[in-house]
Amino acid sequence: AQSVTQLDSQVPVFEEAPVELRCNYSSSVSVYLFWYVQYPNQGLQLLLKYLSGSTLVKGINGFEAEFNKSQTSFHLRKPSVHISDTAEYFCAVRLRDNTDKLIFGTGTRLQVFP
Amino acid sequence: SAVISQKPSRDICQRGTSLTIQCQVDSQVTMMFWYRQQPGQSLTLIATANQGSEATYESGFVIDKFPISRPNLTFSTLTVSNMSPEDSSIYLCSVVIGDWGHQPQHFGDGTRLSIL
Fold this sequence. Notes:
Number of strands of chain A: 12
Largest interface: A-B, 18 and 21 residues
Largest sheet of chain B: 7 strands, mixed
Distance between the termini of chain A: 41 Å
Structural class of chain B: mainly beta
Structural class of chain A: mainly beta
Number of helices of chain B: 0
Largest sheet of chain A: 6 strands, mixed
Radius of gyration of chain B: 13 Å
Helix content of chain A: under 10%
Strand content of chain A: over 45%
Mean pLDDT of chain A: 93
Mean pLDDT of chain B: 93
Oligomer: heterodimer
Distance between the termini of chain B: 36 Å
Number of helices of chain A: 0
Shape of chain A: globular
Order of helices and strands of chain B: EEEEEEEEEEE
Helix content of chain B: under 10%
């Protein structure tokens, strides 16, 4: 069965420090990969996506992610976080089969402290 | 990207009642979906809203409980019927614009529903 695992439910970090949010997936078919961010009392906003091509993907707000096929990972990184990055981050995969389903991880709460 | 408007943004309802949530998009979309996000949890797909025909429901969700309409390419409704406290969640509309095979899903701001 397909699944998405976000290993850290919470990540506390000080402002201007680097951060990595981890995401691993399991799938018997090839996938597209996404990271979404959810700010308090808002919906989900697309941060970045990997469909094909370069395995290093750059997104909005200074975030980037690297697709590692051998390790089935798609970790999200930012070299220097801001207080405004405090939010819930969701990794998601879309199966490239006849279902085209989007499967979400359980989310990682990033808390940035001054 | 498109502007996705959901109404209401939040509501508090009595158990046993029903609430209809609207999702309006400012451009024609290829696909529309409805998700549920229970407190402190991730998103679960309820159904795919199909234009002019019955929605396609995921396992664990049924039409009698969550009737969905999609009369055109830009509008859909989700009704949460005969509500109980377990239905307290955020309900989110999601759309794909353009080539479904190469475009991501975009989400509305959600409807925060509490049942007393």
